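Review form for a predicted model. The reviewer records the input and the model, then writes brief findings.
Reviewer: anonymous (R2)
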Amino acid sequence: MFSRRERRFSAVDKSTGPAVFLRQSFAIVDVELRKVGRDPTEIFSRAIQPILWLVIFGQVFERIHGIPTGPLSYTAFLAPGILAQSILFSAIFFGIAVIWERDLGIVHKLLVSPASRTALVFGKAVAAGVRGIGQAVLIYALVFIMRIELRFEVGALAGVLAAVMAGSAIFATFSLFVACVVKTRERFLGVGQLLTMPLFFASNAIYPLAIMPVWLRVVSRLNPLTYLVDVLRGLMIQGGQSVHGIGTDFGVLGLVFVVLLATTAKIYPSIIQ
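Model under review:
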């Protein structure tokens, strides 16, 4: 038996067009954010690891002076990387919720609704992006307490907000893709744990591209986390610079998201098979 919200969602206009697509997508966003509202402790628990990285790892390497960070202190250089890490680690396990929803029969109900598969995946990606904003607020508060100089210009804050949402959407969509491929919670957890650390260490989150060996630099340029860190470093910290350029960073993130969205939407129905 459908709940009142599910009946309202299944009654969405079957016509096509941007307005209908957005209405379908934001119905999913509403459902996903209600889950966070019921258990907001998840956002705060996700902040523990970034605190340890900044307070312990950052402070220790600050004293070593072994990593060239230009005009920035190592802690200031690290802060955008840890924000990106927080986004990655939170979003990469987003797909396990879809496996739970399949086992509960929710995915079946969504797939027989008039909503397009792209709208279903896009809605979940947008919801992940909104959840990422909570992580950003916590990291900003921690960095401010540590007296790292932040940029508070409207343009810079808007850019960081857009980057956080884009990064969260990318890794959440990638997580959905993995969930559709592996289909079981046990396999998903194994693959998720396998992917997170290589993605993190094969990026410029904790050291600059310039000191990487050539092979790792090549891998890093293929890693979307590198471009997320780069744009955050250029917009978030006073004196921070983007190596690739803000426009290039957003262009790469946008392209990766579009490719992942199209691919995941195509295979999303296979999760019930």
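Findings: Residues 12 and 158 are 32 Å apart (CA to CA).
Further findings: The radius of gyration is 19 Å.
Recommendation: see findings above.
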